[in-house]
């Protein structure tokens, strides 16, 4: 079974979006280099970032996100982002009216059900959990194996927190640290 990884780009003060749910410059590092990250050529990163991110992206089988992200992105028009095979959406509401039932999106109620469904779909591939409220809930439930953060040199001051409103203390192992262009990649294993 693949590991569960909480992932996202984050400001140095711990935010994944500003007060208006906008990422601002958090994704600028994805266009700050000269190495294409995907076939589109729209994303270009430093060689160091490519060597770190590309193998991780290739290992992802399923992404878990919350309904807020799903709605903000208009469900990526029914096509999972970044070449991901499947998306599991944590929501208490039904799928949107008119949603194509053949689209590789699964709507579940609760983070435990989301992780179980994602693991079933992913097999031995990585289950990625989007940072934010849902990611914090999955961490609090003890279901996250690793936390990956792309730390961007910006201070938001307020907004959407990387770990959401997670309660309690959660210990992480010392980070693996990779310096890219306009980003610091951190990978922490969750201490059990």
UniProtKB/TrEMBL annotation:
GO MF term (any one): 5-amino-6-(5-phosphoribosylamino)uracil reductase activity
Protein name stated in the entry: Bacterial bifunctional deaminase-reductase C-terminal domain-containing protein
Transmembrane residue ranges: none
Source taxon at top rank: Bacteria
Residue ranges constituting the Bacterial bifunctional deaminase-reductase C-terminal domain according to the UniProt record: 111-172
GO biological process, one term: riboflavin biosynthetic process
């Amino acid at each position: 079974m693949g590991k569960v990884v909480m992932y996202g780009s984050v400001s140095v003060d711990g935010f994944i979006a500003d007060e208006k749910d906008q990422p601002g410059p958090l994704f600028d590092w994805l266009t700050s280099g000269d190495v294409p990250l995907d076939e589109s050529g729209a994303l270009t990163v430093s060689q160091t970032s490519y060597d770190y991110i590309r193998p991780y992206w290739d290992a992802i089988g399923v992404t878990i996100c919350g309904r807020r992200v799903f709605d903000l992105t208009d469900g990526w028009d029914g096509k999972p982002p970044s070449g991901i095979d499947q998306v599991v959406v944590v929501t208490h509401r039904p799928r949107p009216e008119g949603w194509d039932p053949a689209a590789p999106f699964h709507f579940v109620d609760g983070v435990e059900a989301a992780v179980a469904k994602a693991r079933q779909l992913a097999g031995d591939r990585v289950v990625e959990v989007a940072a934010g409220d849902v990611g914090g809930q999955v961490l609090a439930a003890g279901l996250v194996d690793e936390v990956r953060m792309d730390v961007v040199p910006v201070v938001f001051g307020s907004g959407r927190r990387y770990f959401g409103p997670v309660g309690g203390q959660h210990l992480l192992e010392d980070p693996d640290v990779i310096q890219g262009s306009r980003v610091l990649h951190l990978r922490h294993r969750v201490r059990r």
